[in-house]
Fold this protein.
Amino acid sequence: MPYNKNMKPNRKRLFISKKTGTSERLKLIKLALENECNTLVFSLDDVFFKNKNQKFVKLIKSYPVNIEAGGHNLALLMPRNLFLFNRDLFRMEQGKRKQKHHFCPTNPKTIEIITNRAQNIFNHVIQGVTAPRIIHLLPEKGYESIWCQCPACRAFRPAEQYLIVVNAVADVLSRFDPNARIMYIDFDTEPEAARIKPRKNTIVSA
């Protein structure tokens, strides 16, 4: 059945930090599942998607649980080592390009890199995500409104710049699974004035 954009799955989520050790992670997952958590969310670059630990698999199979991917992973889309020779890809602040916290979404080269990175990431994680598939694409925590101030980007509010990126990644995801959805944060205080409209395969995080 096609995913209804206006109906969010009834999922109680536990976001698993990729920094959590194996033994601690197993205890945390077991406790969450025993307390009616029905969805585990692993980071897009979590080892879970690269080399599934049999202990995790066995534990997860013991419960009716959904697997989702993502979190505050937006930085993964832009390799920071590109900053030295490609500063125009990164956000501008007070006339200077900054390596940290997001990037310049109005640069066509930025979008090209982001979509290629998303393609590569989805190649690794998509089969590990249960249907209906949800990918969380959230901005860096605490820096949601820290975006680019270059002349081109100044035409867009931070929330709109973020949505430009969300839409680009949503287009990539649709090629893997037309029923999959990108979950994003709507932190705009004036949504009725937004000029960037979210793709149909996106949903707003609760």
